Amino acid sequence: MKLAWSRRGFLVGLFVFFVAIYPATAQQNINWKSLSEAQELAKENGKKIMLFAEAEWCGYCQKMYKEVFPNQTVQDSLHKYFYPVKVDIESDQKIVFNGSSLTKRQLARKFRVSSTPTFIFLDQDGNTIGRQPGFLPTDIFDKLVAFVGSDLTGKQSFKQYLKQHGVDISR
């Protein structure tokens, strides 16, 4: 019995396979941490923490995974300034924040997360620097990470920062 695969059919199948797995593998370039590990590392290394408040059913969270997080510039900015942490707002998984044990759901309530996705930026001591709800396209999200990471919060507006970096949001 001869195998029915032609060379062309094999290559098309291989292409479809890699296109299908790309989003799942691309997001793995972000080194997600547990919250307790992120807090420990932040204190040791002077970086900040970014909480990504998400939910399994959240379409815009999935869009972040497929369109924004795979971007190399975004990954580089996150790595430079932050220890990223995923927080499923509906999870009863126990975590430790500032020495206290609570669930991820309780942490989301503590930070008053009312929609997903929401990004919460914390300093090395777990204090809130800022927060941003909603999906952000790659060019805006990357600039937000650099803006907060560079300690520009309170020194200039994010809108001014975007304008200085050639991003017009007045559309």
Describe this structure in words.
This protein has 171 residues and is α+β, with helices and mostly antiparallel strands. The protein has a single domain (31-164), classed as Glutaredoxin. It has 7 helices and 6 strands. The protein has helices at 7-26, 35-45, 59-68, 72-81, 104-110, 138-149, 158-164, and strands at residues 48-54, 82-88, 94-97, 100-103, 118-122, 128-133. The strands form 2 sheets. The protein has a 4-stranded mixed beta sheet with strand order 2-1-5-6. A two-stranded antiparallel sheet has the order 3-4. Helix 4 (72-81) packs parallel to helix 6. The longest helix has 20 residues, at 7-26. It is globular. The protein starts with 6 loop residues before the first helix and ends in a 7-residue tail after the last helix.
CATH topology title = Glutaredoxin
How many helices in DSSP terms?
A: 7
User: What's the total count of β strands?
Assistant: 6
Q: What structural class is derived from the secondary structure elements?
A: alpha+beta
Q: Give me the side-by-side strand order of the main sheet.
A: 2-1-5-6
Rounded to the nearest angstrom, the radius of gyration is: 19 Å
Question: What's the CATH class, please?
Answer: Alpha Beta
What's the SSE blueprint?
Elements: H1 7-26, H2 35-45, E1 48-54, H3 59-68, H4 72-81, E2 82-88, E3 94-97, E4 100-103, H5 104-110, E5 118-122, E6 128-133, H6 138-149, H7 158-164
Parallel strand pairs: 1-2
Antiparallel strand pairs: 1-5, 3-4, 5-6
